[in-house]
Recover the amino acids of this structure.
DNA sequence: AATTAGTTTAACCAACCGGTTAACAAAGAT
DNA sequence: ATCTTTGTTAACCGGTTGGTTAAACTAATT
């Protein structure tokens, strides 16, 4: 029987080292760019051990991708389904996704890049595997309720979500381009993203408020 | 002498067929994912001919990348440096980038993906080669002037540019994700992007206007 | 001490991939 | 007509890559 989960500490350490190395390298270089030998070297073990623990490159990649996707989407659902009102949720979403993207800049690039290179079947398989399919139902109801009460102007929820994600995540994705043609370094970029934690919710929320002329 | 540009029609056709095939495949699968044999097959020629016209995979890729980047950024400068006022420019930018991204959805993914997998040196080399480095100077002055006149509230130009690009381009980049978890097909997606041609400029411009309480 | 099951490695392999070679066809140039 | 240049191909090459194998090494179990 091959039950890696119940094995002694050392082997757990090996498996974890592999997974950690694979995560780093896959995120950096993508599925095609990553080499199994490179992962093995980074984990400090023999290449054959990769296949002992994770049968193939595809399976190892799948594992890494699923965990990345889970990390990235779990916060989304947590916030969307909390008890807060829409304005608080918007602020939290922006804060969470800017922090997440700045701290792990490779993740959004990785997820988006691989999704665009994969077949749709793979994508749906991924989402069901992660069990982190975003659920907007509560948020959507909140928006409709607020609009009905006249608190905000009516908006299409998917546009709102896309606006938030685009404003928070795009700068990180386009970072190399932005850094180059704005001529800014790492510190200035982080400072700018910190500013956006305030600017983006402000922009979104002000667009929801009913204009008083 | 090897001057492919001045060769007869048939060879031009071959060279163009290669370039067209390479463009399609590189954009779809990325630099690492693309295979020279696949490009040759798609162009309907022998693999050796690829190396005859474009010495190596790297050079072929560079060519494709530069032309993609040029296509993508040339519109940006055209609009930024025109004679229009800032509001017209913002509307034009949104319209242009949504159209461009919807018509060629692979291009933004391609450019951003490859930029994130490349070294900074490569990126600056690319930008100088394309001769399409975005120039915000005029736009920046216009913004300052408008703010000084009290027409708009003062804003940081780079935040504004990032907002516009993020709102227009992100949905296309995240399309497979969005399509899946919103459960929409191709036609609905295009319709949604068409809506955004109106929504995004509205959002941006309203955020610039000085609030009247 | 022998057995057993899990872990780790060196060596190996077939397929693949980017690139080369040499021969050949086509078309001007002389 | 033949010689040179350019376009095109089949076959090949060396290195790399994902993956395998069989044996060695551990560490509990008996």
């Amino acid at each position: 029987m091959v039950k890696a989960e119940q094995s002694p500490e050392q082997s757990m350490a090996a498996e974890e080292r592999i997974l950690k190395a694979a995560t780093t390298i896959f995120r950096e270089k993508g599925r095609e760019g990553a080499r199994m030998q490179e992962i093995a070297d980074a984990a400090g073990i023999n290449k054959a051990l990769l296949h002992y623990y994770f049968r193939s490159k595809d399976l190892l990649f799948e594992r890494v991708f699923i965990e990345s996707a889970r990390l990235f989407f779990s916060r989304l659902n947590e916030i969307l389904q909390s008890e807060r009102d829409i304005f608080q949720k918007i602020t939290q979403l922006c804060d969470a996704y800017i922090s997440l993207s700045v701290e792990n800049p490779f993740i959004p690039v990785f997820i988006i890049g691989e999704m665009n290179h994969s077949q749709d079947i793979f994508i749906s398989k991924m989402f069901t595997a992660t069990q982190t399919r975003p659920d907007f139902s509560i948020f959507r109801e909140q928006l409709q309720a607020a609009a009905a009460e006249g608190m905000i102007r009516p908006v299409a929820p998917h546009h709102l979500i896309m606006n938030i994600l685009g404003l928070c995540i795009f700068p990180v994705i386009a970072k190399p381009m932005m850094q180059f043609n704005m001529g800014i370094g790492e510190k200035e970029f982080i400072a700018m993203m910190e500013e956006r934690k305030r600017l983006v919710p402000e922009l979104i929320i002000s667009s929801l408020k009913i204009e008083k002329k």
Summary: The CA atoms of residues 148 and 154 of chain A lie 8 Å apart.
